[in-house]
Structure formats: structure tokens, C-alpha cells
Recover the amino acids of this structure.
């Protein structure tokens, strides 16, 4: 049996969309190969604040060089990859974080800001500066050995632009099987889902929501201190409009709770610009929920123009229209979503890995 080393940052069970994808890669490879899973995330989770900032600059180099030092022990090395974490390997599944693709677009209206404690910022900057030479050199060195798999056509263009590498496109897996039902009991709910961070632009809920007084807005997803400030801002916007009860923040929810809410909602409002894919968009479609997404990045590859917005006025109009859509439109969304099943993803990953091993 062929041996594969899978190197990435992933918690088990996964807590983010990116981690979920690598968990499915692991499950796919385990069907046919002897897989060793290497991840430093579980170790890093034990640290917080300044301790975590310092420790990552000690652990990261070890994680990056580990596959290079053990390359002779495996038939194939499957990794995640970025310029900050240029793992050595043979194949990588690229899924840039939200906002990254904005580098391909001039005149981006959305700015990304993060606030950290001053000491943490200083230590992190020092760590990045100290490790820059080896990261820069190793990124250049390891690039020539990698076959890239992109999670969308938008990511493929991004990888070509940033790294000069062409790539294979395999769309991510989506748990569409959770939504195999033809029963719709929809309410005037507009749902947003994702970790609450500035670049995801959930603050726009506070602008859009008060203009749609007949709809209830629900936000699900974890939030740190910065995220909670965004949630507070949204609540204040609804309160000023006299619609305090029209918005609820649920925090991180279970898979079952997410499924139940998506099945009841009529609309998913996804304001995040320049998504490299957006798994939750397809999940919503599988639930017969109409996604209203920013007109940029990968969502333009599988969502019609009728449900894409470029400004607040368009978002309000398209959410209002989507709330009034009938069953036929929702069934069309479901049919599109089935193209992104987990089983399809696993088969495509195995096919690529089989081919790469055969030509080595």
C-alpha cells in the first residue's frame, strides 16, 4: 500500500470550512492509501494571546521542514501551502482566505483591519521579520515541486497571478446529503453564517437589515473580542431603527442547529467579498435557501447574477426579491448544489493522487 504524508493545520473535528476540506481529503486518502496525518494546530491551541504569538514562530519552522526531512519515507506528500507556511511537498489543495483574491482587483472598496494588543503586534512583527529570509527562500525552493489544486477558477487565477503556477480545479466538498428533503417550511428569515471577522463584512447586516423590517436576521458563527464588537454594532443599528427584535446572534452552533435554521430560512446573506469559494453558500442552496452574495470571487461561478450584489442598495433589493421567490427557484438551487457533493470531491482527489503517484 502506498504511503502518503498529509501535512496541514486542522483540528479534529474541524472547526472551520478550510479544516473541513482537509478532513475530507484525509477521509478520501484513507480509502486507498496508508496516510500519516501531521498537524500542529492541536499543539498551538494550548496557547493563547502573547504566548501563542511567540510559540508559533518556533513551531512553524519545524512544521514546514518536517515533510522535507521525511520525503524519502513516503510515496507522496499532500500539504496545505501559503507564502507564510510554504510546506515542502508534492501536491497542495489551495483555498486562500476570504479577501485574498482582492489583490487581483483594482479599486477594492473593502479594507481589512485587525486590532491586536500592542505587545502582541510587536512580537508578531518581530517574529515575521526574523523568519522572513528562510520563509522567502523555502517558498521559492518548494514551489517547483508542487502540483497545485485550486478550490475554484478564481483561486486558479489567483495562484497563477501570485505564484506563476497553473493548477487543477477541484471544487470543495459540501455536505449536501444533510439536506436531502423536499419539504420546505420557510419563514422570513435571513441567515448569515461564518466566523465574525472584519474581512467578512458582517457589519453590513446592520445596514441592510433595518431596511427590511418584515424579515428577521440571524447571524451564526464564533467571534473573538473584535467580532463581538461587530455584533454589538449590528445590534445597535437594529435598535436605532426600532427593530431590536429583528436580529439575533447565536454564536457558534452545532451542525444540527445550522441545518435546522438553513432549512427554515428563505435567504442566506453572505456579504464577504472575494471569497475563494464559500461552502456555506452551497449548503444554503442544498437547503432550498437562496444565497445573496457579493459579486466577486468564486461565488460568481455558481450563483446567478440575480443573486449577486455590489453595493448595499442592490443587496437590499435582491434580498427582498429572494424572500418572495417560490418553490421552483428553491428546487433549482438544490439541483445546482448537488454538483458539489462530498462523494464527488473524494473521487476527484483520489484520481489526482493516483495519477501523481503513477508518474513519479
Amino acid at each position: 500500500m502506498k504511503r502518503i504524508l498529509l501535512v496541514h493545520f486542522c483540528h479534529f473535528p474541524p472547526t472551520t470550512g478550510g479544516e473541513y476540506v482537509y478532513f475530507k481529503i484525509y477521509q478520501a486518502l484513507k480509502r486507498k492509501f496508508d496516510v500519516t496525518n501531521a498537524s500542529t494546530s492541536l499543539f498551538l491551541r494550548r496557547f493563547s494571546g502573547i504566548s501563542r504569538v511567540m510559540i508559533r514562530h518556533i513551531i512553524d519552522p519545524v512544521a514546514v521542514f518536517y515533510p522535507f526531512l521525511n520525503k524519502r519515507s513516503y510515496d507522496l506528500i499532500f500539504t496545505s501551502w501559503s507564502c507564510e507556511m510554504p510546506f515542502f511537498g508534492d501536491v497542495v489543495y489551495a483555498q486562500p482566505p476570504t479577501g485574498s483574491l482582492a489583490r487581483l482587483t483594482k479599486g477594492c472598496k473593502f479594507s481589512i483591519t485587525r486590532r491586536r494588543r500592542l505587545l502582541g503586534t510587536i512580537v508578531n512583527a518581530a517574529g515575521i521579520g526574523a523568519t522572513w529570509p528562510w520563509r522567502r527562500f523555502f517558498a521559492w525552493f518548494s514551489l517547483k515541486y508542487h502540483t497545485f489544486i485550486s478550490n475554484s477558477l478564481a483561486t486558479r487565477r489567483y495562484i497563477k497571478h501570485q505564484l506563476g503556477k497553473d493548477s487543477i480545479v477541484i471544487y470543495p466538498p459540501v455536505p449536501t446529503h444533510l439536506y436531502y428533503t423536499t419539504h420546505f417550511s420557510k419563514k422570513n428569515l435571513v441567515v448569515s453564517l461564518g466566523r465574525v471577522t472584519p474581512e467578512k463584512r458582517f457589519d453590513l447586516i446592520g445596514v441592510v437589515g433595518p431596511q427590511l423590517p418584515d424579515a428577521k436576521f440571524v447571524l451564526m458563527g464564533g467571534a473573538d473580542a473584535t467580532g463581538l464588537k461587530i455584533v454589538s454594532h449590528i445590534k445597535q443599528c437594529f435598535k436605532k431603527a426600532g427593530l431590536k427584535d429583528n436580529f439575533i446572534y447565536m454564536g457558534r452552533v452545532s451542525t444540527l442547529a445550522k441545518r435546522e435554521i438553513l432549512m427554515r430560512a428563505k435567504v442566506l446573506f453572505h456579504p464577504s467579498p472575494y471569497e475563494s469559494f464559500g461552502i456555506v453558500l452551497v449548503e444554503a442552496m442544498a437547503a432550498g435557501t437562496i444565497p445573496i452574495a457579493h459579486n466577486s470571487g468564486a461565488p460568481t461561478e455558481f450563483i446567478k447574477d440575480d443573486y449577486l450584489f455590489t453595493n448595499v442598495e442592490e443587496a437590499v433589493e435582491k434580498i427582498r426579491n429572494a424572500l418572495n421567490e417560490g418553490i421552483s427557484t428553491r428546487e433549482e438551487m438544490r439541483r445546482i448544489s448537488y454538483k458539489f457533493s462530498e462523494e464527488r470531491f473524494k473521487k476527484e482527489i483520489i484520481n489526482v493522487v493516483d495519477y501523481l503517484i503513477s508518474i513519479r
